[in-house]
Amino acid sequence: MVTAHSKPLSHCRWLTAVDLFCGCGGVTAGLKQHNFRVVAAVDEDPNACNTYRVNHPTVHLYPYDIRTVNPQDIRDVDLHGEDLDLLVVCAPCQPFSSQNRSNKVDERSDLIFQATRFAKILKPAVIFFENVPGLATLKYRGLLDTLRADLAKLNYQLSEPLPIDAADYGVPQRRKRCILLAVLDAPVPPIPVPTTPQGQRVTVKQAIGHLLSLKSGEGDPDDPLHQASTHLPLVLERLHFIPKNGGSRYSLPPHLVLDCHRNHKGHGDVYGRMQWGDVAPTLTTGCTNVTRGRFAHPQDDRAITLREAALLQTFSPYYEFVGNRDQITAQIGNAVPVKLMSAFAPTLRSTIKQARQPVASSVNPASSVS
Ligand SMILES: C[S@@+](CC[C@H](N)C(=O)[O-])C[C@H]1O[C@@H](n2cnc3c(N)ncnc32)[C@H](O)[C@@H]1O
User: Fold this and answer.
1) Per residue of the chain (370 residues), what is the pLDDT tens digit?
2) Best of 19, 44, 47, 282 for a ligand 1 pocket test (most atoms within 8 Å of beta carbon)
């Protein structure tokens, strides 16, 4: 006798996915490249939702606080009652970020438990979590233990936090992250082998070197996203003194050093330039502002543009973004790089296949012949 999970998997069919905390759609864009059919997505941010809608019009978007979304609706309406293949959970990372130095636990950290609520109803074969490395620290051990125990009650094995760097997977950006995988009734797979290990990184030059060189306030007439910020004269003077191609604020003459940086060794990346031959630093929600990190162009005296930020996050040049400059910067900085998701997709596909494999029961077939 053979038992099977509800849905056997043929080789080339589209797999279904639900994208929780979808933001502007980095995860969905990466999954679509590997024949995943994202049937539903949830995010409460109206600007990110506008971007998501424009780029993924066939996905049923739930633009609400996730705590108010009923997973049974997704099961009934978007999955027509079927079990889901892949659930993606990119809960907000701010509570787990190293920037969050508060000893208090941020109540947003609880949003990760939405995974269990949705898994209970949607019964995905695999759950993919992406977050910041802080999630793997001692402070959140209890939270992960609870998540593991809750998922185990639903027959999922949750992996240990798997540290990765997006730069290892074709992304021209150092972006250390923590991945967790939960698999229904099957072992957790190893993470994909890096496609661009040290020495083979995709560089800033390769990603954005072909774009028009711009001065402060200039823009590419053919690309509204490739528009340089108009910097104040004092900011321009500082940028002028930052050595091209990787220089930092430590080269500023004394009269241009910011008051808050006098006798202060930290925040060394502020006003820093990216380096053509290296990957970019981690893009954040302030990544088009030179006062928020190493976000100055390698050569031009200006911050990187929205287009440059989007390319460094591996969005296609045809991806549309909706909102004002700050809103789009936040969407891009929050996103999972498209190439990172796309690099994981084949592993997720084969794991789903394995989890859906008919399982031979322990009953001796001979004894069941009547
Ligand atoms: C790390 S970002 C997600 C990035 C996205 N997965 C991507 O690939 O572009 C986290 C998202 O969680 C959303 N979020 C935060 N709290 C939420 C809530 N209570 N309900 C729904 N979405 C929420 C934020 O609006 C943000 O877009």
Assistant:
1) 334 455 555 455 789 999 999 999 999 999 999 999 999 999 999 999 999 999 999 999 999 999 999 999 999 999 999 999 999 999 998 878 766 666 666 778 899 999 999 999 999 999 999 999 989 898 889 999 999 999 999 999 999 999 999 999 999 999 999 999 999 998 999 999 999 999 999 999 999 999 999 999 999 999 999 999 999 999 999 999 999 999 998 889 888 887 777 777 777 788 999 999 999 999 999 999 999 999 999 999 999 999 999 999 999 999 999 999 999 999 999 999 999 999 999 999 999 999 988 765 444 444 333 3
2) 44
The CA 92 to ligand 1 mean position distance, Å, reads 6
Name the phi and psi angles at 283, rounded to 5: -75, 135
Sign of torsion over alpha carbons 349, 34, 57, 42: positive
Q: Which residues of 285-322 are buried (b: 16+ CB within 10 A; e: fewer)?
A: bbbbbbebbbbbbbebbbbbbbbbbbbbbbbeeebebb
Instruction: Return the active site residues.
Output: 93
Dmax of the chain from CA atoms?
94
Count of alpha carbons within 13 Å of 218, Cβ hemisphere only?
10
What homologous superfamily is domain 2-199+333-360 in, according to CATH? Vaccinia Virus protein VP39 (3.40.50.150)
Structural domain spans, the chain: 2-199+333-360, 212-304
Ligand 1 centroid vs 66 CA: distance in angstroms?
9
Gap from CA of 91 to ligand 1 centroid (Å): 6
Residues with CB under 6 A from ligand 1: 21-27, 42-45, 48, 65-67, 90, 92-93, 111, 334-336
What are the DSSP calls for 145-212, one per residue?
HHHHHHHHHTTEEEPPPEEEEGGGGT-SB--EEEEEEEEETSPPPPPPPPSS-TTSPPPHHHHHTTSP
Cβ(305)–Cβ(288) under 8 Å? yes
